[in-house]
DNA sequence: GGCAGGAGGATTGTCCGACAACCCTACAGA
DNA sequence: TCTGTAGGGTTGTCGGACAATCCTCCTGCC
């Protein structure tokens, strides 16, 4: 049977979805900084599509939480305040520790794969790749629970983080050390030492939070 | 200071949001059963709005996961398969137990309030109200973690459940017993007995799942 | 000088009409 | 039985239009 991969893959996404996808990528890559207003007509001409199409794309991005809409004033790139970041971190804590507690052995290989990719990314040194791989690792942690739905929630959560990271680009600050920590975490989980893993994860997340951009509490 | 409540409240939502809201309500109330296709023109004439408006509303509902879009074939009311329900239940488990573990005393009153509303709803006997209150209670459980973001994720998760419940309306099947269980859970949490609470919650969720509509595994 | 109030431009929210692309079904033909 | 085609219904995208709203600037008055 022929599957639509490789040479046979064609893009069957609607124009709207392509626009949304492009914007999403630009958001994650930090090409659009938080607070930037997104004008409908500007985007329409930039993409060479109609305003309706742009509007639909924006609406999905708003629903995803990447953009913020102010009625009659348009949408802006979501700005994650320090308070929200803290809130987000708390949510992550629940999700990731919960997933570790409910970890299913079958999902372990995905975590190992994520770690390998992470190591590879750090090897290349490209900060964006490191970010992406870092996020992907934590995504895999959430995936341990073996629930698609939960993984999707984790993705939503981490996308916000990715936004914040892309903006306050404190790039690969001691990526080496970060990597060691993650490997340690991975090993504990793989060894089945849930208690130690949970402790390490808690510590890891907490420190992550402490290292967050130290703006004055909004 | 005058706040926009009571007699002073006016509806400042956009037409699109009102349409989305109306559809959302109808979905939760089970007036639209899973699998039903939603035709754009039909909705437009029914609501007395333009097709563009309907399209935008549908798009947000799709992003929320309440509707499913098949390219060039329109959107249908999301149907949650038994497999997905199981998946969902696993996600709930992680979220709710995680929230209980990370419970903050400040959020306890909200849980108590939810329980009170639940009791009241069971008192009236209206099955829809009972459903809503039941969901609200579990929502409050997630809220224990004190993270807005997490609560919103919980809402997304539970909305699916609400869909499934609205469809397979096994209404207030022994609502009394259910209520007792929830009260028990509440008391354990309130007493600070996290371990027992977690155990009870696990049991509760598991049984919930077992009681789910027993269609053949899709 | 500072502030209420209005003019003007920019932008969003909504509508309408149009048309190509697409999907599904039914039917005819090999 | 399978292939190909015709037809109608629906979605996806476009362009243009206009009222409502917001923002900025300017005016005039105290």
| Biggest interface and residues each | A-B, 34 and 34 residues
Could you spell the SSE succession of chain A in H and E letters? HEHHEEHHHHHH
Give the class of chain A from helix and strand content and strand pairing.
mainly alpha
Helical stretch tally of chain A: 9
How confident overall, as mean pLDDT of chain A? 88
Largest sheet of chain A: 3 strands, antiparallel
Global shape of chain A: globular
Question: What oligomeric state is this?
Answer: homodimer
Strand content of chain A: under 5%
The percent range for helix content of chain A is 55-70%
Spatial sequence of strands, sheet with the most strands of chain A: 1-3-2
Descriptive overview:
Two copies of one chain form a homodimer. The first copy, chain A, is globular. The termini of chain A are far apart. Chain A is 66% helix and 5% strand. With 218 residues, the first copy, chain A, is mainly alpha-helical. A three-stranded antiparallel β-sheet of chain A has the order 1-3-2. The structure holds a DNA duplex (30 and 30 nucleotides).
Give a brief rundown of this model.
By secondary structure, chain A is mainly α.
List the helices and strands and how they pair.
2 copies of one chain form a homodimer.
Chain A: H1 15-28, E1 37-38, H2 40-47, H3 51-64, E2 67-70, E3 74-77, H4 82-101, H5 108-124, H6 127-143, H7 148-167, H8 175-190, H9 194-210
Antiparallel strand pairs in A: 1-3, 2-3
Helix pairs in contact in A: 1-3, 2-3, 4-6, 4-7, 4-9, 5-6, 5-8, 6-7, 8-9
Chain A binds a DNA duplex (30 and 30 nucleotides) through residues 14-16, 39-41, 49-53, 55-56, 71-74.
């Amino acid at each position: 049977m022929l599957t639509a991969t490789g040479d046979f893959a064609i893009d069957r996404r609607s124009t709207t979805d392509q626009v949304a996808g492009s914007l999403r990528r630009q958001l994650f890559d930090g090409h659009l900084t938080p607070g930037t207003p997104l004008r409908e007509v500007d985007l329409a001409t930039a993409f060479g599509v109609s305003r309706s199409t742009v509007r639909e794309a924006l609406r999905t991005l708003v629903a995803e939480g990447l953009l913020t809409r102010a009625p009659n004033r348009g949408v802006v790139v979501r700005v994650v305040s320090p308070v929200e970041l803290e809130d987000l971190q708390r949510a992550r804590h629940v999700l990731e520790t919960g997933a570790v507690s409910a970890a299913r052995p079958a999902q372990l290989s995905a975590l190992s794969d994520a770690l390998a990719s992470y190591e590879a990314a750090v090897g290349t040194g490209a900060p964006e790749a490191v970010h992406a791989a870092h996020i992907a690792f934590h995504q895999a942690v959430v995936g341990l629970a073996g629930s698609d739905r939960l993984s999707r929630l984790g993705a939503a959560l981490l996308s916000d983080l990715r936004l914040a990271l892309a903006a306050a680009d404190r790039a690969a600050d001691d990526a080496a050390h970060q990597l060691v920590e993650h490997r340690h975490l991975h090993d504990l989980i793989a060894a089945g030492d849930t208690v130690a893993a949970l402790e390490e994860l808690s510590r890891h997340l907490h420190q992550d939070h402490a290292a967050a951009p130290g703006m004055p509490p909004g």
